[in-house]
Amino acid sequence: MTDVATTIEPATSPTLRNIPGLDIIPDFVTEEEESLLIQQLDARNWAGRGVEPNPEMKRRHQHYGGVFSYRLRRVVGDMEQLPGMFNFLTRRLLEQKIYASSPKSIIVNEYEAGQGIMPHVDAPKLFGPTITALSLLSDCIMTFQHVKDPSVVVPVLLSRRSLVVMNGSCRYDYKHSISKDLVEYLDGQEIVRSRRVSITYRDMQVSSGEETEHPVERRLQ
Ligand SMILES: O=C(O)CCC(=O)C(=O)O
Ligand SMILES: [Fe+2]
């Protein structure tokens, strides 16, 4: 990547929302599908807050496919098939050509009001070129910050039931984060945060055990 900085517009420009490789698909699931997903997820075990494989994490989460330990920085255990409850989502991702083949890994994150995720780039050596996250139960703002030019900060609304797709520059050149704020503002719109559950699809890039650049500790908020 050369001359990245020269292609970036001033931070004040509204056109900055056009981050190369960023796409947001509204209403990726229906209200009925959202309720069913939440019901099924809540019937399963949430990790974090003292529960393995990431007991140190305050945010509750569920890993499917490859179970990634943030502490050990690697996939622990065997790659398992994704549970059937995700089949319709995977099918939709393939139908809409967001992925060419079924992604092998899902992380479900739960954010209580007052919880967020620190700025990070999803481990480039571990996860593939397309990251997607489905927002359930609450709107939030995802903030993108350019790695090489931190003055470039781009807040983007992730509305409830939308899918955010990160490819190319968006996936590799920008950190993404979600604040802990209970109330957020974007373009004069007030966004009141409540419990949010996100379903992130990622392809595993390499065999387990490879060192990654994941900012482990800084994710633990
Ligand atoms: O909650 C989200 O929408 C994003 C989660 C995320 O960035 C991650 O797990 O790496
Ligand atoms: Fe991420």
Small ligands present: 2-oxoglutaric acid, fe (ii) ion
**What percent of the residues sit in helical stretches (DSSP H or I)?**
10-25%
CATH architecture: Sandwich
CATH third-level topology: Jelly Rolls
Give helix and strand order, one letter per element, not per position.
Answer: EHEEEHEEEEEEHEEEE
State the separation between the terminal residues, measured CA to CA: 31 Å
CATH homologous superfamily label: Alpha-ketoglutarate-dependent dioxygenase AlkB-like
Strand order of the largest sheet: 1-10-7-14-5-2
Give the class from helix and strand content and strand pairing: mainly beta
Overall 3D geometry?
Answer: globular
Q: Counting H and I runs of at least 4 residues, what is the number of helices?
A: 3
User: Average pLDDT, to the nearest integer?
Assistant: 84
In quaternary terms, these chains amount to single chain
Q: For the CA atoms, what is the radius of gyration?
A: 17 Å
Strand content: 25-35%
Most strands sheet? 6 strands, antiparallel
Low-confidence segments, ≥5 residues, pLDDT <50? Answer: 1-16, 207-221
Q: For the record, what CATH class applies? A: Mainly Beta
- Strand segment tally: 14
List the domain count as a whole number. Answer: 1
Protein name: Fe2OG dioxygenase domain-containing protein
GO biological process, one term: demethylation
Organism: Mortierella polycephala
GO molecular function: demethylase activity; oxidoreductase activity
